[in-house]
Design brief:
Helix content is 15%, strand content 24%. Strand 5 and strand 6 form a beta hairpin. The chain is of the alpha+beta class.
Length: 156
């Protein structure tokens, strides 16, 4: 019986893939691309805010009057916030048009209840005169017009 067990173990080891290696055309494995992007983990930094909290935020002018609401946040190709799309005019969404404003044009502060307050140095008339924002092409990757900066840079 011991002889049979020893023979079975010997045959099993001899039949393993390493023992059966043959010489012939070599198979190569494709290495991972050297320029592949590895995940980089991130932690919240002081002063940051989520885009989801910015979307839907009311936008006021310098006099504190409501001039619109942030509908979209536009990211540049490298991931920076390039602009926000503000819905202006209209009533209950009817007659509203969208304008793109460079993110740097906004003044963001917190009120006493820790709510985000967004101010833009623009009048209702200047927003009506601003080029209307429209996504061009599929996937929303552009606009049909070019925006113009506000008359004066907002104070920080």
């Amino acid at each position: 019986m011991r002889m049979l067990t020893a023979a079975a173990v010997g045959l099993t080891l001899a039949a393993s893939p390493l023992a059966l290696a043959q010489t012939g055309p070599s198979q190569t494995t494709t290495p991972a691309p050297t320029g592949s992007i590895q995940p980089q983990w991130y932690s919240h930094q002081a002063g940051e805010m989520r885009a989801s909290k910015l979307i839907g935020t009311r936008v006021n002018n310098e006099a504190g009057e409501r001039i619109g609401e942030i509908n979209e946040v536009v990211l540049s190709k490298n991931g920076d916030v390039a602009a926000v799309i503000i819905g202006v005019g209209g009533f209950l969404g009817i007659g509203e048009r969208e304008v793109a404003v460079k993110f740097e044009s906004l003044r963001l502060t917190q009120d006493a209840n820790d709510n985000t307050v967004v101010a833009l140095s623009a009048t209702k008339d200047s927003l009506r005169a601003a080029p209307e924002w429209r996504w061009s092409g599929e996937g929303g990757t552009g606009t049909t017009g070019k925006g113009t900066p506000p008359a004066e840079k907002p104070a920080k």
